[in-house]
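A further point concerns the way the authors explain their paired sequence and structure data. An entry of this sort, consisting of the sequence and the corresponding backbone structure tokens, reads as follows:
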Amino acid sequence: MMQIDFERLRSMGFTPAWASQALALAAEMDDVPALAPMRLTVLHRETVQLHDGERERSARVLPRLTRTLAEGEDALAVGDWVLAAPDTHGEHWVHARLPPQTHLVRRDADGRRHPVVSNVDTALLVMGLDADFNPRRMERFLALVQGSGVAPVIVLTKADTVDDARTLFCRMQELRERLPAGAEIVAVDARDGEAAASLAHHALPGRTLALLGTSGAGKSTLTNTLLGHARQDTGAVRESDGRGQHTTTARSLFRLPGGACVIDTPGLRALRPDADEAAVAATFGDVAALAPHCRFRNCTHREEPGCAVREGVDDDRLRNYHKLLREAKRDTMSALERQRQVAMWKARGRAGAARAKAKREVG
């Protein structure tokens, strides 16, 4: 039977629930000796880094496990708990993954799913108060987190770049008016130790934080501040647009001095959340609250008269809502439904071109 050093693993976020799952899964694999639970801290192209609570080691993933996950449109992610064992040559192999308790996933332009992080308690959604400030993008990050079981915290970095307290207040108020009621918003200078103090109630022993945001938002700087020393490389941002240059190239999990873990991630410039319509609706609670007051029950909040949503929601926020909703609907369509939609839009395009041609001929 697999032996688990619970005290050693607890600093990596291991709990009795994880221990029960690990023992049950190991019992199904009794032909594999020396299995041990470890946490995935870095994911490379060919190898992964695993931590057993005492030391970090390199390992490879069994092709069978990779195929099984891929068949379910899934893959390993930083933060996963896995069962690994050494072979006869001492090289470690990942044999199984414990089902993640939380799992953040994004989609690419083709609709394919890409895991971001696993087993995270709190997502620190990082946005700079310089040229990086973009409420529309923050709504996308919230849609990524909504419904996942992960608590979002909006962290506005580079508070030292704001000229006066009124400007800072106005920017925070702009976010509060657009984002769901009760969303926690913190403004910090990521280089200052006070930033770690303001987030200490989230960095409790056994908890895991993940920093998400664009390149140059200050994620790695904040990671170093939380760690208490410079572990992650940081770089300057372009003055023209405030964007960083991808100093962080891989997701990495670190242990914090107080017993929590933090995952630093590369910047996401193009974010398409793996969210259904319910998750989008949860991000835009003001739309859901006003919708019952529209004149028509099936109001789409576009051109209909008597639309309470259009009257009560900022135009830019409503456009972002419609865009996220279209993406969510498209991602849940079957292949046949997508083909029909493409055919419909092509037919509309041809009809529009025909009408334009007819008008030219008449003129």
Q: What stands out?
A: The CA atoms of residues 81 and 99 lie 8 Å apart. DSSP finds twelve helices and 14 strands in the chain.
